[in-house]
Amino acid sequence: MVRIEEIAKAALQGESLLVRSLTQDFLRYQPQFASIAQPVTDDEQVLALSAAFIELFAKRANQLAPAWTAKIGPVPQPIFLLKAAQRMKRLRELCEAESPEPLRRRRLYATPDYLEFV
Description:
The chain is mainly α. The protein is built from five helices and two strands, in the order H-H-H-E-H-H-E.
């Protein structure tokens, strides 16, 4: 079974196809998001992205996120989850303005429909 931190690590490495595949596997089991344990890691980027993903998936599934996600703050430097946003000004601006709230709150940026189709 896929762990949320695996998805976060793939996203941080810019592996968008792997992120989609791992997310599909993760969501296939229709988890009860509130029961997912906090990842054991010292990597604040992995932890922030894991929390953001859990909150995003829970919101889309009309479920509650686990309590630990509320304690996870933003990363020190903004992270764009789409490589093209680093080169394309309008895409970067779209991501900054309309990234899903659980991501944007942690300075993680993607398009508004990021991982919706998974």
